[in-house]
Each structure stands twice: as structure tokens, then as C-alpha cells.
Prior knowledge:
The protein has helices at 21-34, 50-59, 67-79, 82-90, 101-109, 123-127, 146-150, 163-180, 200-217, and strands at 6-7, 10-15, 40-43, 95-98, 138-143, 190-195, 219-220. By secondary structure, it is α/β, with parallel strands linked by helices. It has a single domain, classed as P-loop containing nucleotide triphosphate hydrolases (Rossmann fold, 3-Layer(aba) Sandwich), CATH 3.40.50. The longest helix has 18 residues, at 163-180. Pfam families: Thymidylate_kin.
Amino acid sequence: MSNSTWRAPFIVIEGLDRSGKTTQTANLYSRLQDEGIQTSLHKFPDRTTAIGQMINAYLCSTSELDDRAVHLLFSANRWELASTIEKTVSARTPVICDRYAFSGIAFSAAKVHSGNGQPLLPFEWCRAPDVGLPAPDLVLFFDITPEQAKARGGYGDERYEKEEMQVRVREMYRRIGEEMGAGDAPGKTKWVVIDAGREREVVQEEVWNLVSPLVKRGIEGPLRRLWVE
């Protein structure tokens, strides 16, 4: 691999609420640091920014916003850090994100009208604001049944943590994963489904086995763009 075209990978961890993805993301970050691999960690929504604070108030049910406005705020929150992600991987520092555009689409497209249960926002409309964002090299989707998630501590603390909502979100993630494809072809995002209902240590080792070779090997060529041919 030529020195001038090498960069670090961009890795996203997605998942249903209470799937353990945040814990596993933190464990992965710590393990990479322990291995001497300086890594940049981001969590979306980034609640430290002005936009992120508005999102936080909405998620904690302390404010009400139009569903379309909320979706666009989530997307804007990701765009705030798009250039930072690009610069970081170009500087050969791996980037790991806890949630990204895929969760934004899944949660918004899963909303339904209270009267008839029909989708509130079209899937394509939900995806449109994130077209052109930096595309991750690897997405690990932490899959868990809503029943398993409900049994875990803290379930229901935030607005979207309702079982019927999680069922719809899970279906939207499935659709996104199918559209992304296996991603084994060169230049495509690889989407991997992780069974998050297993013991924490088992999941942790699977994540490490998927991520560490990518981090140590590096990536040839620049970051691609989401949903841009």
C-alpha cells in the first residue's frame, strides 16, 4: 500500500436501544487505546453542541418539536462533525461512532400516525438529508429483540424506548442493511449484524475480531460518500 493513499478506517456501531452498543463501543475504544492505537470516539447525537442540546431536550421529553424539524436537527448534528471525521481518518487516526445516519433514518421512518398507524415520514425523505455524508468502512449493527431489550435496566427512560416503536425501528434497520448489502465488494461499506443478546464477553470478542484487522491494516483511498454513486 502506497504511503500517500493510506488512511485509517471509519467504523460505526449501530443498534436498538439497550442493545449494549454504547458499552461495547466504550470497551472497543479502551482496548484500542490499550493496544497503543490512538482512536477518536464520537457519539451521536452529540449533545454538547447547540443543536445537540436541542435534541437532548426533545429526547428527554422536556420540549416538543415537529417531527420533520427533529429529523433535520439530527442530520445537522452529524454534518457538524463530517469534516472532523474526514480530517481525522486522513491523519491516520481511526474514528469510531456510536450511532450515525442509519439510526437517524431508522427512528424517523419508524414513526407512525397515531390515528391510522401509517408512516409519518417517507423513508426516502428521511434518508435525503444525509446523502453525501462520509461513508463508514464498517457498520456493526447490534441486533436484539425488543423483549430482550425491555428486560434490561433503564428501558423506557427516553422518548423512543417503547416496545412497539422498537419493533418498527428494527424493521427499518433491516431494510437499511439489505440496501447496503453485504459490502464485501471493494469500495463499499460492510454491514455486519451482531447478535447482541449473547453474553457481553462473547459480543466483545466478536467486535474486536472484526475491527482490529481493519484498524491495523488501514484503508486504501479516500472516504466515500453515503448513497452517492
